[in-house]
Amino acid sequence: MSEFWHDAGCVFHPVSAPDYLPETQLKQLQLHRLRAVVRRSYDHVALFRERMQGKGITPEDIRQLEDIQHLPFTVKTDLRDTYPFGLFASPMNEIVRMHASSGTTGKPIVVAYTQEDLRVWSSVMVRCFAAAGLDRGDIIQNAYGYGLFTGGLGAHYGAEALGATVIPISGGNTDRQIMLLKDFGATAICCTPSYFLRILERAPELGVNLRDLPLKAGIFGAEPWTDEMRKRIEPEANIKAYDIYGLSEIIGPGVANECSAQDGLHIFEDHFYPEIVDPETLQPVPDGEEGELVLTTLSKQAMPMIRYRTRDITTLYKEKCSCGRTVRRMRRIARRSDDMFIIRGVNVFPSQIEEALLAVEGTAPHYQIVLTNDGTMDDVEVQVEVSPEAFSDKVSVMEGLRKKLSASIERVVNIRVNVRLVEPNKIARSEGKAKRLIDNRKK
Amino acid sequence: MKMHQLSMFLENKPGRLSEPCRLLANAGINILTLSVADTQQFGILRLIVPDWEAAKGVLEKAGFVVNVTEVVATEVVDQPGGLATILEIIEEVGLNIEYMYAFTFRCNDKAVIVFRFDNNDIAVTALQAKGISVVGGVELYERARQ
Questions:
Q1: Residue B76 CB contacts under 8 Å (≥ 6 apart), including other chains
Q2: Residue A37: pLDDT band with limits 50, 70, 90
Q3: Could you point out which of A136, A153, A406, A433 has its C-alpha 20 to 30 Å from the C-alpha of A36?
């Protein structure tokens, strides 16, 4: 297929067409699909049916898009409570794949796909890659973990559907990653931003300068990261760093992606209907206001999600993007309501600490936040690695750096924190999602 | 006539100092002198070794952040007033001493003091003008070997 659109000189991949739908048509499509998915969930998933009955509504009550607000929410514990297959809306003989999350507490959450679900998933991944300027001829090194985690296979099949060449290296083995980046001339890499930092750090030790390689794009996701992190990564690797968003409960990676404008992530609204609600009152907030992202899968068959509370905090906006896409954008997720910690009555997100640290010149982006309690008071210690650039043989310079970091954090979060400078590589590197917060407070 | 000094960032924890020393020992590198500047949280280890490039390689391979700084080593007579003479010269040219540490050689009546000035070049010129012996790296190592 795609050779035709190339010959025709088209500016976008045909699979990206829904990104450019006029609003009226998009809304018609969304309503049509919403009604169908609500019907499907009501008929096949006991939990949805009982909740809707509890609210005294039936699928027929969904007459316009706004009626979505009457539907009950779904939360992560619903997936745990119905473990393993309680939310499946398709019989097993139609389900062709399952994925599962690493459950940090007890049972994992399980998600399922029909053949059609996988086709949709690949198509939204193609739209992600296309938005990041990738195409046939690109070589994509996929360093997301393959297996039960959705990241690896999701990006893999999307990259193949795009027509790019995939290097299915999976996560880990950093030296090998660097060798293949160099030897195979990958033009793009998919991984978590924290793992890419590890690659950036290791490459010079192997005598490889990433700036000299054909690598031009990074598709970074699976954990929140900041613009400050992008400002570090891009010049150091001479690439464009794109944020990709997704979650297994909805489909995996491919819910939203940044375009060349790198100004918010386009949500593939024809498949994932976004709402923003106030996380306290659960009341919808209008476009442009911050709140918790709630997603409804409009076309999912095997495991539809109705008003799933993502815990991710963002803002939706529909101002026209310079790339021409008409689907709404969301601000990059810098924080999750899950990650928030409360210290001396103040709500703090790890991303705020990251921002504050990276605002100070010469700090490595490797940090960890440790919370302790001595019995009376909560204490925050932010451990930051000393980078070769920041290290000085003068105590005054090092103490100055420590104070600058501490002041920068205090400016952002309004509480005093202890900054501890630690030796390089003392903070554990992750090959997947970085662990930024360690809570040692007695519960 | 400046010398190379290695400095390293160390966390202030038991065992942190022994690791670099052990690494250098295993590589057969002798430490001529060292000083540790410490704060409650961390320390900065400063080292003078004969082959600073090899030492730097060994330490970096083990994951330490190692800086190379130029310092000035002067020779003073190991007797009352030895150091005061040097400090007066430095005061006269209006320089600051960032830090200093001293060591003595076996079988020698001289001490060597290592300085980091805020401007090493001016310091060397001023000291030499007053007849103070500024010792170069090679000379120092030769003497250490005797």
A1: B82, B83, B85, B86, B110, B111, B112, B113, B132
A2: very high
A3: A153
Contacts of A424 in chain B (CB under 8 A): 9, 63-65
Domain match, B17 and B7 both: yes
CB contact under 8 A, B44 and A395: yes
- Whether B84 and B46 map to the same domain: the answer is no
Residue finishing a domain among B15, B36, B69: B69
Chain B CB contacts of A423 below 8 Å: 9-11, 63-65
Interface touch B11/A422, C-beta < 8 Å: yes
Transcribe B105-116 into DSSP letters: -TT-SEEEEEEE
Q: Is the Cα dihedral B132, B136, B139, B141 positive or negative? A: positive
Residues of B in contact with A395 (CB under 8 A): 37, 39, 44, 99
Entry pTM: 0.75
Domain that holds residue B34: 3-69
CB contact under 8 A, A395 and B41: no
The pLDDT tens digits of the residues spanning B44-66 come to 999 999 889 999 999 988 888 89
Give a yes or no: residue B143 inside a domain: no
Query: Which of A402, A423, A425 should be substituted to probe chain B, the one whose Cβ sees the most B Cβ atoms within 10 Å?
Result: A423
Residues 6+ apart with CB under 8 A from B138: none
Q: What's the rounded Cα separation, in Å, for the pair A204 and A215?
A: 15
Q: Please state the length of chain A.
A: 443
